[in-house]
Amino acid sequence: MKHSNPVLDTPPKITLGITETCPMRCSHCYADCANAPKPGELTDAQWIPLIRDLAENGVIQAYFEGGEPLAKPGFLNILRATTPLMMTLVRTHGIGLTADLAKELGDIGLGRGLVDLLGADAATHDAATGMLGSFAQSTAAIANLVAAGIPTDVLVILTAHTAPQLNAIAQHAAGLGAKRIGVLRLYPLGRARAAWSDLALSMAAQTQALATLRMPKGLELMQSWHPNNKNCCWQAAAINAFGRAIGCMYLRDYVDFGDATKTPYNEIFQTDPLYRALRSGDVEESCGDCSGTQGSHGGCRSTAYAFHGRWSAPDPFDLTLNHGVDLTVPPPARAKGGSGADHLVA
Ligand code: SF4
Ligand code: SF4
Q1: 95 CB-near residues (< 8 Å, 6+ apart)
Q2: Ligand 1 in contact with 24 (CB < 6 A)?
């Protein structure tokens, strides 16, 4: 089983799961978000020096997500401190993202906005978010970001509820001036694992939904299904709301590589044995088609571990590596790995 990935000494970009606070109550929320900050979340005063250290150590891009980054107290202070140092992206559901705030984000230098839609109409989207009026606010947020001159993408997680509306969501995104639409797989994390039976699609249904997607003119598609199923662990880095190094936000329930406020991220990146193994691409099976287009091996390590309980297992979301795994059956909870796995987050 040797399928090595490119090797990096330091990560070029990082995802910052800046908070697990959010005003919405999505049934699939990976962060199991709450209304108020959870105990132990880093403050803006703690994030800023951490981000400066990352920039001094070669990180050139920060992707902020949550929770809802805009609900993080002091988030604009964090963004202001980051834009002179790195390219910045913010993933948001757009609640409260008014025209004035979009302009302020543009003035601060935000590089890109990404807004999640969970339906093409208020009934579907608001049912998924648990918040009446959220579709109108997310729609306004996309328009406001575009009007402020910020390149903006729409993200949609492919579920039993979004699949029938995929074309309508793409039309909606294009009509609002979005540049790209990202169609993302559903991960069995947080509340999504508990709601799996209601949300998850079979491999065949996912493939069918993508095959019937007709992209509106001018809108670019981002998707990582076969033959584009990449392993991006090889260059991935992430820190959660509590300052823990977790490699990727989609590994949030499965790993803890240590405290990034105490140990430089690059040291964790270079020394944690599980982190190194996940980046290696040394997996039991690799899809030749996907490796050919992506230059990396094994597909996603998060879903491989979730469904098989082995870090080197085949990624069941890849058409050629699925081998009959029923993706509509929720996988069991898994043990956490990594050097910091004994640490208890409150
Ligand atoms: S909007 Fe995002 S962060 Fe908020 S509850 Fe939904 S999934 Fe979680
Ligand atoms: S766990 Fe999956 S999504 Fe995350 S970096 Fe690895 S391959 Fe990419």
Answers
A1: 23, 24, 68, 70, 71, 131, 134, 137, 138, 141
A2: yes
